[in-house]
Each structure stands twice: as C-alpha cells, then as structure tokens.
Amino acid sequence: MENNIYQVYEDEIRLLEEEIKLLTEEYEDIQQESTFFSDEEILMSIKLFQREFQGESKGHEYPVDLKAQLESLERDLSFLMKFTGIQFTSHSKKTLEKSGNRTVQKHRLSGNCRSLPFQLEFQLLEMQNKENMSALITDLSVIMESGEYSDLSKLVSSTEEHGNLLLFFRSLSSYAEWYEHRRCTFLHFK
C-alpha cells in the first residue's frame, strides 16, 4: 500500500518534470525569437502597439484606405482559392537561425486542394547580399494520404527531390480538379 502511494507521487513528479522541460524549451524559443530584434525595433514596436491600442480604446476606426486594402486582399484571396481550389487551413513558422544576411525558418503548412488534404514541412533559407535577396527551400517533406491517392506518389517524390512548390501546387490543383471529374463520372455509372 505504501509503495503504491510512493509510485503515485513519483509519477506526479515525473509529469511535473516533463512539463517544466517543455515550458523551458518554449521559453528558450521565445527568448531566441526576441534576441533577433534590436532594442530600437522593440521600442518602436511597443510605441506602435500603444498608439494602436490607445486609438482603439478611444473608438477610432482604421483608416478608410487600410480597410479598402484589406477588403481587396480578401477578394483576391477568395478568387485564388476558387480558381486553384487550394485552401490553407494552418501555417506555422519558426525561426531557426538569423544572422546578418542569412535567415533559416521552418514552415509547416496544411490544407486542402479541392477534396485532397495535404501537409508540407520545409525550411526556407533566405540570403541577402547588397543587390538582391534569394530564397531556397530545403528539407521539403510532403505528407498526403497514400491509400486513395497513390497516383500522386511520383509528384510527391519529385517535389521533395527538387523543392519546387510552384510545380507541386499547379500539379496538385490540376490533379484534384480531374479527380473530382472522375469521381462524379464513376458515381454517374453506378
């Protein structure tokens, strides 16, 4: 009986230690993110936030042109989603490294293309020199349900090999559109 009580306490201690470890890692990530900004940038952001907060608390509305821009962007996004059939459901970004002219970020995207679900994970390496900025996709991983969509395995492996997201989305959009046509046709004959 006494051993059982000790076991419960040991389990609770172990759970608390794991929670402390996770919270420490999260804190270090936040600290790492905040070290990428200079003191001037942080102070400017704080002042901008305070001005926006004070403006909202006084009942001020956003400038008309800002609202118009937002509405225009929403219309454009809606059009692109209808046109391509691609809808992103979640996106996360984590900065892994940031130096003077080099930034490495890890991105995770998930969404649907018509009825086909997909997930992407990749690292984006951005390098800036005096004249221009270049971006390179590395460590690309495409995750799709393999059972029903086995025809896409070549596309997935080619995308992972070459890191060409534009070609992936174009091909996926075309495939998903014709997949829907085929599905409707087969339903018609059943």
Percent of residues in helical segments? Answer: 55-70%
Based on DSSP secondary structure assignment, what is the total number of beta strands?
4
Residue-averaged pLDDT, rounded? Answer: 80
Q: Within the largest sheet, what's the order of strands?
A: 1-2-3-4
Give the uncertain stretches in residue-range form. Answer: none
What is the total number of structural domains? Answer: 2
Q: What overall geometry do the principal axes of the alpha carbons give?
A: extended
Q: What is the radius of gyration?
A: 24 Å
Order of helices and strands: HHHEEEEHH
β content, as a range?
25-35%
Number of helices: 5
Instruction: Give the class from helix and strand content and strand pairing.
Output: alpha+beta
Keywords: Coiled coil
Pfam family, one: CENP-P
GO biological process, one term: CENP-A containing chromatin assembly
Protein name: CENPP protein
Task: Describe the protein's architecture and organization.
The chain has 190 residues and is an alpha+beta fold. The chain has two domains: 1-53; 85-189, no CATH class. It contains five helices and four strands; from the N terminus they run αααββββαα. Strands 1-2-3-4 form a four-stranded antiparallel sheet. A hairpin with a 2-residue loop joins strand 2 (102-113) and strand 3 (116-128). The longest helix has 33 residues, at 2-34. It is extended. The relative contact order is 0.07. Residues 6-33 form a coiled coil. One of its GO terms (cellular component) is chromosome, centromeric region. This is CENPP protein.
